[in-house]
Amino acid sequence: MTELTDFQRKLSALLPQLQLCFFEPMARHTSFRIGGGAEVMAFPKNREELSQLLKTSALLDCKPAILGAGTNVLAPDEGVPGLVICLKDCLDGMEQLAGDRIRCMAGVTMARAAVFAANQGLTGLEFAHGIPGTVGGGVYMNAGAYGGEIGQICTAVEVMDAKGDTHIRTREEMHFSYRHSVLENSGQIVVSAEFQLAPGDTEAIWSRMKELIAKRTASQPLNLPSAGSAFKRPTGGYAAALIEQAGLKGYRVGDAAISEKHAGFAVNLGSATAGEVKQLLRQVSEKVYEHSGIRLEPEVRIW
Ligand SMILES: Cc1cc2nc3c(=O)[nH]c(=O)nc-3n(C[C@H](O)[C@H](O)[C@H](O)COP(=O)(O)OP(=O)(O)OC[C@H]3O[C@@H](n4cnc5c(N)ncnc54)[C@H](O)[C@@H]3O)c2cc1C
Predict the structure, then answer these.
(1) What is the per-residue pLDDT for 157?
(2) How far apart are CA 200 and CA 61, in angstroms?
(3) Which fold has domain 221-302?
(4) What residue spans define the domains of the chain?
(5) What pLDDT score does 1 carry?
(6) Rounded to the nearest whole angstrom, what is the distance from the C-alpha of residue 256 to the centroid of ligand 1?
(7) Residues with CB under 6 A from ligand 1
(8) Fold annotation for 6-86
């Protein structure tokens, strides 16, 4: 059995009541199915536990990494030193508010949030139903699809800072832009988010969600591990089209490959490493630049 590190011993002594896992494989928590062990992975069940964790890790001079559903993260093969705080299904709960708004905790998946809204007869979240991440990850990334974006409907975000204190950020203070929010720079953690929706017909909402899921299933390689679109949409084109025009569909580095089904996706064919995915992204970006003069930037967060 591997001996515990000093950090693991100290953290479990200071937080005996918290659910902590040691050397937890990141591959189990990322949709790429890639990544070595996290020194400590913590699963806080509520605001109080999250706050305690943040205070204690600050005391131990550790800046934790935050994980939602891991659907936009490439985790390193050698593992993650220090603390990873996993929020999926941990910070849980949803409620309807006055004025056709809903509030969702950060660990709720987008799919559950969209179903909740549909069941209340509220329209506006249909676009997010097929995005496989959490509300926290969606707010952080300003996730979007089929013309909708979190930043269009998000009216307020409850965030927690490194000291474990909570604050409310208005939509204006979130500085949403394409696949970006202020949280990338502030380091604050999404605890919950409010979405402004509108009254709608439940049947029509469900029918739109089913239509969008069918579109995804028809066009995306959902049978293989990936992190969705590998690259951001560049100015002046679409990543998938540029990659296809450069003849790179099916291009491989080891077990990391550009999907044959959708050139915008990098997929794990079986035992791809983070190193292989990084090389693949670098090589594809260079080849697309040589072919089109357009530089592709990764959308996936490389840890
Ligand atoms: C098959 C597939 C299809 C996809 N389709 C789409 C799509 O249509 N549109 C789209 O935008 N994306 C898409 N994605 C990418 C991904 O689902 C989104 O980016 C999603 O919003 C990520 O959420 P997550 O909870 O998985 O975040 P993670 O991948 O866990 O994290 C992403 C980033 O957000 C940060 N983060 C996560 N939670 C929090 C929090 N509570 N507070 C602060 N920071 C946090 C992490 O530190 C990390 O930097 C797709 C991915 C896959 C695998």
Answers:
(1) 98
(2) 49
(3) 3.90.78
(4) 6-86, 94-204, 221-302
(5) 65
(6) 20
(7) 31, 66-73, 87, 106, 131-134, 136-138, 140-141, 143-145, 183, 189-190, 220, 222, 226-228, 301
(8) 3.30.43
